[in-house]
Write a structure and sequence with these properties.
105 residues, single chain, mainly alpha
Length: 105
């Protein structure tokens, strides 16, 4: 199982600590809100909006150095567009781990 990390963010920043801090602040602000929205769309069976929300979150997963989770999120996104939400719970588990990681940064 992959763990979230800041390796990719540090790589693209080129050592610019200000950029890294700015991006981390955005992640810490946006991610919990998007996770809450995702859960709300699921509860209301709004699978089209759920897939759009997953699409937005995918970029953050990638920034946190989790390529396998990114690929999995893409699959769940495509499945949700078709009304198939069988793997939703597994995705939320990954996203909750990311959320805890961000809170501790």
């Amino acid at each position: 199982m992959e763990n979230p990390n800041l390796n990719y963010l540090k790589e693209v920043s080129g050592g610019d600590a200000s950029f890294e801090n700015s991006m981390l602040t955005i992640l810490k602000t946006d991610f919990p809100e998007e996770l809450l929205s995702l859960k709300n769309f699921y509860e209301h069976k709004n699978y089209e909006e759920l897939s759009l929300c997953i699409h937005k979150i995918k970029h953050k997963i990638g920034m946190l150095g989790m390529p396998m989770a990114l690929e999995f999120a893409s699959k769940v996104e495509n499945d949700a567009k078709k009304g198939n939400i069988e793997q939703y719970t597994e995705l939320v588990f990954i996203l909750e781990r990311i959320n805890v990681y961000l809170k501790n940064q």
